[in-house]
Amino acid sequence: MRRTGHVDVWKTATVVSATQLTPSGRSLVLDVPGWGGNLAGQHADVRLTAPDGYQAVRSYSIASADAGDRLEIAVDRVPDGEVSPFLVDAIEVGDQVEVRGPLGGWFVWRPEETEPVLLVGGGSGIVPLMAMVRAHEASGSTAPFRLVYSVRSPEDAFFAEELSAATGVEVTWIYTRRAPDGWPRPAGRLAAADLQALEAAGVEAPSVFACGPTGFVEAVADTLVTIGHDPARIKTERFGGA
Ligand SMILES: Cc1cc2nc3c(=O)[nH]c(=O)nc-3n(C[C@H](O)[C@H](O)[C@H](O)COP(=O)(O)OP(=O)(O)OC[C@H]3O[C@@H](n4cnc5c(N)ncnc54)[C@H](O)[C@@H]3O)c2cc1C
User: Fold this and answer.
1) 0.70 cut: is pTM over it?
2) Whose CA is nearest to atom 42 of ligand 1?
3) Mean pLDDT, rounded, of the chain
């Protein structure tokens, strides 16, 4: 796995598969000749061009961490958004977009890292964390990995089946609006008590990666610092929005 050069060059990407993940989310696998792989946690810029020449560019985290010329992105539809409704509802297998990247060298996890890791994702913020979970599993890493994934309801979880089956990562689900029947934790936003409960379970001084909507990430980072985490060990990726 490597971070390739020529990241500022737009490359043509062909959609080779499109899978509905949730009512509002869709995974797209793109074939990009010359892509050359990415690190877990990096993102790509996607550029759409309308028939009249108008262009729109948005960033999307990469869910995959392979060495080849394919990458997976997973997009959640932002109501009234310009780009995400097109990627979730309209683009089809065989269609083309342009991509640039991989981008970002800080919010990344490398398989040679051995320290415990705490991943905290809100909504589509799971995407770069999924790349880390996949890279961790594929490399056979024994670094302790724990994921806290906050979603509105079970139906809103990206990659739920894969996460349930993943080895080497312990997943804590936080449901903010509707929990499954019989779920011990009532639905509600991620709180200090949830994160403190992890520490009671033995996760000490991990390296943290938190990702999701801006408000979610800020709340998580503030809470982690309040309960004693070293700010220098908390890395964040903000997707925008509330
Ligand atoms: C580094 C990075 C990685 C990202 N990775 C992903 C990803 O893996 N999957 C993904 O779905 N999105 C991701 N995003 C967000 C993505 O870039 C777009 O912002 C998002 O898809 C909305 O674009 P849009 O054109 O549909 O909406 P716009 O037309 O740009 O915005 C419409 C309205 O929605 C608000 N808004 C913008 N973004 C969001 C948001 N994320 N949540 C809620 N409201 C928002 C805006 O403030 C505006 O009011 C990432 C952003 C960054 C910076």
Assistant:
1) yes
2) 241
3) 93
